[in-house]
Amino acid sequence: MQFGNIALAVRRDWREWLTFIAFVGPNLLLFGIFTYYPLGQNAVLAFSNYNLITRSGEFIGLRNFDTVFSSTQFGKILINTFVFTVASVTLLLVLGLMIALLLNQKLRGRNAARSILFSPTILAGAAIAIVWIYIFDPRFGFIYALLRPFGIAAPKWLTDPNWAMPAIIIVYVWKNLGYATVIFIAGLQAIPRELYEAARVDGAGALDRFWHVTLPGLSPVMFFLVVTTILTSFQAFDIINVMTKGGPVNATNTLIFHLYELFFVQSSAGRAAVVALLLFVLMMVVTLLQVRYLERRVSYA
Amino acid sequence: MRDIVLESSGDRRLVTDQRVTHITQRVMGYVAMFAVVLIIGIPVAWVLSGALKTNREIFSTTPQLLPANPTFENFGKAWRAAPFDRFYLNSFITTLLGAGAEVIMAVTTAYALVFVRFPKRDWVFILLLLALMVPEEVVIVPNYLTIAGWRMVNTYPGIVLPGASIAFGTFLLRQYFRTIPPDLIDAAKVDGAGHLRTLLSVVVPVAAPAVATTALLSITAKWNEYLWPLLITTTEDMRTLPVGISRLLDQEGNTEWGVVMAATLFVIVPVMLIFLYAQRFVVDGIASGAVKG
Predict the structure, then answer these.
(1) Which of B36, B42, B257 sits opposite A116 (nearest CB)?
(2) Which residue, B224, B277, B40, is CA-closest to A119?
(3) A residues 165-184 lying closer than 8 A (beta carbon) to B
(4) Distance from CA of B259 to the nearest CA of A (A)
(5) B136 contacts on A by Cβ (under 8 Å)
(6) pTM of the predicted model, to two decimals?
(7) Which of A66, A83, B85, B246 is the most buried (most CB within 10 A)?
């Protein structure tokens, strides 16, 4: 009797475990092959002169790091990445918060406006980039058409090294503004109404309420947005590749574009792996900051 | 704001002040809505009008927002300018396979993490959590070598496989599955249902909105994917739509904008239609992911 029960329990456990493996296995296996293994492989490649064409390579120490970091355009690429990230993240947060605050009241058609603003987020970056090339076109584009009556010459956005980066940032912010706004609206709606009532009873004005109730109440969402928008800005490739290909003269060359360029234009897996490692470290730092913050703020349920 | 009857005139002024700020705020709200519609609407209008304009209007020195003589001939020209039937077919197949794999694995993985007993289940969870922190871009070089080693460059499996696993959707669903009352699961067990039946006949129907959100996010992500299909496809007949249209520009400087805008609509319209139909799921799903963490 006793034994029978145990045998039954063991068999039941086995069945549970097999089910678990069948349900989780394929997903984990794919992560193993295409996420964990390549992470290690990347580190190996960074120290080798692996060539895509000859499909062979050997250990060359730190030479790839040296070549990548000391190349003349690398400083420019780091600055571009920094400028692109800081400018887009700041614009997304400030504009997103402003629009969210204004939309977060009982307005007719508010949900429609929210969805309209969100719609570019779900469209292909490559398609949006093409649309904006036409908008920016200095001879036939919308901005030209808009400025012409005022006698103002439209900038040669994508071929002028001073205007290419702002153009890319405009498109990127345009595409992702709806995302930031939607998250901010959700954050605003999660702030308990009683806090506002209490502040009002205490005689706090609109500005006081914003500083002492809204902003602190939004801080988890704000932090989430800072982290996710920084991470996605590091991955912004389609818009840059379609609109400028990193040009003119490296004016919009960022780390992710440089990675692509090293691998598929110069066929150097090793040097591309160095850039990939650098990107990974940068993104890891940002992510770990978030994890530490979450640990402090929210209990993981 | 509720109307409150107040005694002193000072208090009354306070109430009027509040009402004035309230009205200003509402007006500003409508102004913001109008601005939002313009910010998004103008580029959209520019694409539509570009696609409907004749070349003469597009290359005129005084461009107008609205086409004077709308024509559909750009769509035909666009369709012939590149093998769009192939692009569509490739996009459909890779989206179907990629998003299908993601949704199935997200559902089964989340189910197992919540309802199936297994020693060290949390470790599995952490393994997935860590995978979420590795963006695709960081591992494209080794993945390219892996796919090349398997002789899958320029094939559907080559496009689909590296992106087929799913962490984010798994978390979204796990979060949702945890809110399903255990009684429901127990009732199914008492009825003699195994895990697969419980999953299909109890959990998935109950969690339908979350599954729909995951599916929509997967579908749009796969349909729009650019970097990986660009790298792993080598011939025109294997390109997906986003990669295919961006090559319409590559040929020379003098782009035929009417044709290219029409081609852009080929890519945008299917996703737009899905979004119009299901925007609630997508927008709310994204928002809840951020707030609930």
Answers:
(1) B36
(2) B40
(3) 174, 177-179, 182-183
(4) 12
(5) 235
(6) 0.89
(7) B246
Domain layout of chain A by residue ranges: 77-297
For the segment A17-61, what is each residue's pLDDT rounded down to a tens digit?
899 999 999 999 999 999 999 999 999 999 998 877 777 788 888
The ipTM is: 0.87
Helix (H) or strand (E) holding A230: helix A215-234
Packing angle between helix B121-132 and helix A2-31, nearest 10 degrees?
A: 10
Q: Please state which CATH number belongs to domain B82-292.
A: 1.10.3720.10
Contacts of residue A41, defined as CB under 8 A and 6 or more positions apart, other chains included, come to B142, B145
Residue A75: its H or E element? helix A74-103
pLDDT band at A301 (very low <50, low <70, confident <90, very high): very low
Q: Do A238 and B242 touch (CB under 8 A)?
A: yes
What is the structure's pLDDT at A295?
Answer: 65
Q: How far apart are the first and last CA of chain A?
A: 40
| Nearest chain B alpha carbon to A25 | B109
pLDDT single digits (tens) B187-230: 888 888 888 888 888 899 988 888 988 998 899 899 999 999 99
Backbone angles phi, psi at A59, to 5 degrees: -65, 125
Q: Where are the domains of chain B?
A: 9-58, 82-292
Q: Is B7 exposed, middle or buried (0-12, 13-18, 19+ CB in 10 A)?
A: exposed
pLDDT score for A206: 78
